[in-house]
Amino acid sequence: MEVYERINSILKEKKILKKKFVEKLLSLEPKLKTTDEIPTAPTIYSYLNGTLNLKLELIPYIAEALDITEQELFDNTKKSRLKYINFFLKNPTKEEIELIKSKTLKYDIKIKNSIVANENNGNIIINTKYDNEFEEITHLLKYAPIPLLEKFKKRLKEFKKISEDF
Q: What is the pLDDT of residues 102-114, one digit of tens each?
């Protein structure tokens, strides 16, 4: 798939009209280094139609206008996404670590002496008499190797099933 085809596909997925995309892209004032000028709307439409070759220096602006990563313009397969994540996890910045933490398990205190851990719209209710142990374990989990976490998760699912059967 050509990049212009991928852009059109993303526009369709996100239900963004080409006109709105062109307006947003132009609002970012993407100056071309070769001409030191901002491309015109007709030029951008030509890029989108594949009649003109897309200038590489526009890629960051296009990604920003679409609210995606630059990588997603080229390949968005599962394999590519995993490779991309692994690349960042090898040497993450402080900001990337904070973002990852913010997107993982979140704990909220709930009335009636219980804690609810929300993960992908699922709820796990834990009695507060285990508050300290629960907090300590969740804090230590970030140091656990992935295979241990997978075994731990599997075992917890078994306990959950046993509890639900009662």
A: 766 554 444 334 4
The pair of three-digit structure tokens given for residue 63, joined into one six-digit string = 């990604």
Contacts 24+ apart (CB under 8 A), 115-124: 124/160
Residue 81 counted as domain residue:
no
Query: Contact, 45 vs 22, CB < 8 A?
Result: yes
Residue 153 is assigned to a structural domain of this protein:
yes
Count of domains for the chain: 2
User: What is the domain extent for residue 153?
Assistant: 100-165
The reported pLDDT for the residue numbered 113 is 40
DSSP H or E segment with residue 99: helix 94-103
What pTM did the predictor assign? Answer: 0.52
Q: Which two tokens stand for residue 137?
A: 């374990």
Please state, in angstroms and as integers, the Cα–Cα distance from residue 45 to each residue in 7, 126, 148, following that order: 12, 55, 52
Q: Are strands 114-119 and 122-127 parallel, antiparallel or unpaired?
A: antiparallel
